[in-house]
Amino acid sequence: MGYRLNKKLSDLVPYDPIMGSYRIRLDANESCFDLSDEMKERITERIRKVDFNRYPDCLASEPVRAFADLYSLSPDIVTAGNGSDELISIITSCFFESGDTLVTVSNDFSMYGFYAQLYELEVKTYQKEEDLTISPEKLIEFCRANNAKGLVFSNPCNPTSLGLCREDVRKIIESLDSCLVILDEAYMDFWDQSLLDEVTNYDNLIILKTCSKAIGLAAVRFGFAVANKTITTALRAAKSPYNSDSVAQVIVSEVLSQKEYLAEKRDIIVSETGKLYSSIVSLNEKYNCFEKVYEPCTNFVFIKTGEYQAIYEYLLENSIAIRKFNGFLRITAGTPDENAEVTETLERYFKK
Q1: Is domain 7-30+260-351 in CATH 3.90.1150.10, yes or no?
Q2: 231 pLDDT above the threshold of 90
């Protein structure tokens, strides 16, 4: 008998994003802003000075300092990763043992459960309320009833666009003192309920941040984990020594140092998300076409509709890519022109 894949790999299929070329891409929650030509020039000049025959800084010290300065943190509690995905993979594989229970919530980012199952953890999924919110009390009880060693969720949530206030998140962390809470704040730059400045108050908390959303560096693959010094030391020891390359480190440190630029682009994205939400609400009031449009605290709008498949396909036919889920649509805020076109295209769909 020849070699066979083990059970946990045999049924896996590669990640399958939307393929093809579309005029408007509003499917991946990326920033709608590319870097300016001036910033690209500065980055290019710095890359010319990179010693390509040398390994990168294993701690990514420069981007870590830039990140810490941007968020008013100590660099000593920050770990750099090859995107948040790598950090999720490290945490699920190294901070838990085979058979431990990790609690996820539904609906949420699918990669939490994917990595947990890959590393042979027992995944228990807490079902949100009918309105897609989380009850802190019910989630705490669910974790206790399942003897959870870990809890992971995004706040604000991808894909629902909804968020838990600081007080509710504190209650969850403090009530589960023997459970490691992994709090993914990928979209918190668009809201004001972050716990980053409180992370060292807890010995059971890791906060994840990404450069792929408000920072606008989805192409670079860079993320950060923030935790107390004990957890940070363990994370740095468990990760691959050279997990972020020198070119990426140059790009990230340069962009993170541009505080005014980042604040300006973030504010525009927040404004445009609000306008897109208002336009879709107006469309719904006019045509009664959606079951619910959720008010976002992210850079995208989440919509409940039984016509999700037909709407999704109609937009693709008009060269507009959005994201579909079973019974829902997710539309990332784009530029003003892109948002106007997607709204006009939706109106044409409902007029017909």
Answers
A1: yes
A2: yes
